[in-house]
Amino acid sequence: MSKICKLFFIAFIILGCQENPQPDSFAPGVRGWNILSNVVEKGELLLNSSENYNINHLQLSHHLIMDLRDVRNAEKLGATRQLINKAQGIGIENILVWDHALYDLGYYPEDFKNDEGLINLDNPEFWSWFKTDYRSMLDSLPGVNGIVLTFIETGAHVEDQYSVKWKTESERLAHLVDSLASVVIDERNLQLYIRTFMYHERDLEAMLSCIDLIKHPEIKIMTKEVPHDFFLTHPVSSFIERFDKEVLIEFDLGHEYNGQGVIASILPEITIARWKYYAQQKNVIGYVARTDRYNKTQNMGKPTEINLYALNRITEDTTLTAEAIVEEFITQKYGENLVPYLKDVFLETDDIITSTLYTLGLHINSHSRLDFDGQSNYSRHCSGKWLDVPTVKVEHNVNKTFHYWKDLIEHLSPARYKSKEVEPGVQSILYTEAPWIIDGGLVTSIDKMNLEYLNHIVTEKEYAVEKCEWAVNKILSAKQYFTSLNDFEELLHLYERTFLTAELYYHSSKAYFGFRCFLNEPASDELKKIIVDGLVGMRSTSEKIRLYPHKGDQGQFNWAKDADRADDLHEKITRGWDVYDNQKFNTQ
């Protein structure tokens, strides 16, 4: 079992997993996939394998139908209809599209707004127009069996609109859902899932309050495998036991934040561990898994198909181990002879990702893109928000337990992100979403980056580079056993890109965190060397990335662009960074 999986089993215990209300062999009634990309041939490639995965539920979202009003876009509607026809032709029983409501305020007629420009929710004519509009949109998708509705994180928040009748935010949200249910369920006999989304615990309580007020008995819930967003260090969504409705678990096997299949987001163990938890929950009816992250990043047929395979197998038999499932996949895709070479690589890739894209347990990137100074990294994305005991045990040759707030955010975060305001009049994300962290004195509005933490970071990033080198060499040593040269090269290129990414993060970490350390304490020769080595290494690795001929599929994450992002960071540091107003570093 990998180190990250051990972390999650500990998290499950902390969160108080119950005795199993479901049998060990619990078979989910809903086994779903979600296609985000509008590249139809990739979606059809996925659907051709749906029978092998017992798929009976399909969702089409993001670049297809993200809002139901997208049916008025001929290109999106055409691609969506093609995939609906394909899915119907191979016997998938339930096909759903996404929606967000309300849309932006400009979408709605001015006649329904008050003097402040807010929609008057007390006007029955607004709701009549709203339902008529919804019917017309549904008419464009006759093959659809249901809607997945996100009613939080929308354009025009219904909870912010004008109403005397529905006084609280929860009442307004619930009325919106029930109004849609009257059309989707009662009139059209379709399914309606409400998709939860939250940034912090206050969102969770508001959402739970809203769900309690929803009157329609046939509404179901879809919630993510973790609170907020898809980070490997987040715990499971244990709050689902508070839902008095059937729950569908949304998995991200396109790994938006963990490489997107462009680098080695081979992460079966975390999926297996999480499903073993959800299989025990009495209101869980199944799963739906994201299969791509835009454009051609579809996982089917690639090494990252292991993520889809692992979820399918563990839902068939929760007694299976990750080791057994990985062996099965390698045998079926590459041949039994390759199991001794590839098994450990696949099982230890979670350590590669968590030591590369994460820094001492903090997620330090933006949708898999290089981004060391992003505010959300040090606030919104911090897993400590969702843990009763906000600590993380970091292996990766560091071998130390850190408190997320008092240790990690306090030392790794720039000072402005730990303050109430990032600039005059602009409240920080941390104070907006977790004010108790600042008010309680768990962090201070001072940059505390120091040599101790810099050394921890460098140690971890060195580990990542070494681990990647080991993985690449294992694959190279197995070349003679591959029956397909294409399979060998595809796997090798995946891990070579990962190796270059680990190198880039190693050098960038030394330069970025070292530069901030330089501003806070005397500039020793050791510190100066770390910074200059980092800056020189950034240039070198950026050039390697530009010259590397196999740049992989481009999704939301364009891997080759990380070289440009590193160059931008390099320039900021060498000119002393305007925001920090300090001296330059000479790397000549």
Strand content: 5-15%
Number of strands: 14
Q: Give the helix proportion (percent range).
A: 40-55%
The radius of gyration over CA amounts to 25 Å
Strand order of the largest sheet: 1-2-3-4-5-6-7-8
- The unreliable regions are 4-21, 579-585
The class by helix and strand makeup works out as: alpha/beta
Q: What is the count of helical runs?
A: 18
Shape, per Cα inertia axes: globular
Oligomer: single chain
Mean pLDDT: 93
Largest sheet: 8 strands, parallel, barrel
Distance between the termini: 46 Å
Short description:
This protein has 588 residues and is an alpha/beta fold. The chain contains 18 helices and 14 strands. 43% of the residues lie in helices and 11% in strands.
Overview of this protein structure:
It is a single chain. This protein is α/β, with parallel strands linked by helices and 588 residues long. It has 18 helices and 14 strands. It has helices spanning 3-14, 40-47, 74-89, 124-139, 169-187, 201-213, 268-278, 305-316, 322-333, 339-347, 349-356, 404-412, 429-433, 435-439, 451-477, 485-520, 525-547, 562-574; strands at 30-35, 57-60, 94-100, 146-150, 191-195, 220-224, 247-252, 284-290, 358-359, 362-363, 391-394, 400-403, 421-423, 426-427. The strands form 4 sheets. An 8-stranded parallel barrel has the order 1-2-3-4-5-6-7-8. A two-stranded antiparallel ribbon has the order 9-10. Strands 11-12 form a two-stranded antiparallel ribbon. Helix 15 packs antiparallel against helix 16. It is globular and about 70 Å long. The protein starts with a helix and ends in a 14-residue tail after the last helix. Residues 4-21 and 579-585 have low confidence and may be disordered.
